[in-house]
Amino acid sequence: MIPLNRYLRQPHAPDCACSVCWSSRELAKPAASQFILCTECRPTRVFTVVTTMAKVAGVWRSIHSTYRVERGFTCAKHMPALRPPKYWHVIYDSGMPTPFVPVREPFELEG
């Protein structure tokens, strides 16, 4: 019988197709952004306009700031839909759910 230590921690071949090597190759690829904005779309940005500084415990810290917000814009093509996709529907609505009550003692039907 061949000992198990002989097979453990062995290097894989460069063209190995096992799931571990495939996963490592996929994770090494740069992630593509799932939501690419067009030239019309722009994110919301916040700029600090005025900052009031004061010495707190011997260290200068910001105690009050005024900000300017530049509102973002999303074009109609990238705007999410107002209603869910068509596959969202109720197949059968049986009403309010019935709570599960465990039976602690066995019982017999009378009759």
Task: Provide the descriptors you would attach to this structure in a database record.
111 residues, two-stranded antiparallel sheet, single chain, 22% strand, 1 helix, mainly beta
General description of the model:
The protein has 111 residues and is mainly beta. The chain has a domain of 40 residues. It is built from one helix and two strands, in the order H-E-E. The N and C termini lie far apart (68 Å). The relative contact order is 0.11.
Distance between the termini: 68 Å
What is the total tally of β strands?
2
Strand content: 15-25%
Order of helical and strand elements = HEE
Strand order, main sheet: write it out.
Answer: 1-2
Radius of gyration: 31 Å
Low-confidence blocks of residues: none
Mean pLDDT: 78
Strand-pairing-aware structural class: mainly beta
Question: What's the tally of helices?
Answer: 1
Morphology call: extended
